[in-house]
């Protein structure tokens, strides 16, 4: 439904919906292509690989990451450019999705979704930053601290980048726990009492999930992820109480208005 048709109180025909969706998808693809071209140009002219390797440089002891394939560095640049391209194009993509869905939403739903999206993006970036600047360096330091004359560490660039991307994605997703809980609370699917009741279950499940996500058997690396994730869970319970009380207040006000109107 377009803005003009919404103001006139008429609905957009189904085929017009498909046409609008098609053009918005085209715009999103164009944004991705342009962003990828820009990020690829930057990646070819700036030593982005150095920036990615920089957090673990102190733990390489003067050594460098190795490449085992002639095209490995170019493949890594493509991956980096693709990731940067998605980040650069994400505002355009988010706007196009929002512009297509917003007319079908109630004003109350619009007020809820915008903060949720902003909070989700912020927490995802915090999770990624935590993985890159805290988790990976500490983990590398612990591993390199294992001294033995029988082994020489030769870390390949592709394996390191794959490890970095996977663990960053895992951290970003795990940091979305508060957003998920707040959204479920706003929809009335969970209550703060329920969250508090199953706090011990959440503790165990979170610890197991963090152990599965983090590589190796290092307890410290698991705790680096678990501590902020469980802290965010406790914080989400407090925020859930605020949302729950506001929802109850709005429901009471609606009941009083309805009673007054019927009287």
Instruction: Kindly state the number of beta strands.
Output: 0
pLDDT < 50 stretches: 1-9
Q: Give the end-to-end Cα distance, rounded to a whole number of Å.
A: 37 Å
- The average pLDDT score comes to 80
* Beta fraction: under 5%
Task: State the helix count.
Answer: 10
Number of domains: 2
Counting helices, strands and paired strands, the structural category is mainly alpha
Q: Largest beta sheet, briefly?
A: none
Layout of helices and strands:
Layout lengths: L2 H6 L5 H32 L2 H6 L18 H30 L5 H38 L12 H18 L2 H10 L5 H6 L1 H15 L5 H44 L1
Task: Give a written overview of the molecule.
With 263 residues, this protein is mostly helical. The protein has two domains: 1-104, no CATH class; 133-254, no CATH class. It has helices at residues 3-8, 14-45, 48-53, 72-101, 107-144, 157-174, 177-186, 192-197, 199-213, 219-262. Helix 5 (107-144) runs antiparallel to helix 10 (219-262). The longest helix has 44 residues, at 219-262.
Short description:
The chain has 263 residues and is mainly α. The chain is built from ten helices and no strands.
